[in-house]
Design goal:
single chain; alpha+beta; CD59; five-stranded antiparallel beta sheet; elongated
């Protein structure tokens, strides 16, 4: 029983103390709102992203949440296609992608 209690406590500490976002802003340009990243994932599994495309035919800003192992994917491709240049910022606390 002692080993089971230790493993349970260790599991809870690892998954509740890990850094990560549970809520991020999601949307385009000035039209964004708070969104829960996932109801089925583990805490610490998600990060908030803000991609800003400047120049080109149609500058834009995208905000979203994504798994930590996935970078900004759609934003850079759209930005490059329109002739702009962009930058992706990622952060791990709730609603940090303002």
């Amino acid at each position: 029983m002692t080993n089971l209690a230790f493993v349970t406590v260790l599991f809870l500490v690892l998954f509740t103390a890990s850094d990560g976002a549970q809520n991020c802003y999601s949307g385009q340009n000035d039209r964004y709102q708070s969104k829960q990243c996932s109801s089925g994932g583990f805490p610490g599994e998600f990060t908030c992203q803000k991609f800003v495309c400047e120049g080109g035919k149609s500058p834009f800003t995208l905000r979203t949440c994504a798994r930590k192992n996935v970078g900004c994917i759609a934003g850079p491709r759209i930005c490059q296609f329109s002739g702009g240049h962009g930058k992706c910022n990622r952060c791990d606390s709730d609603l940090c992608n303002v």
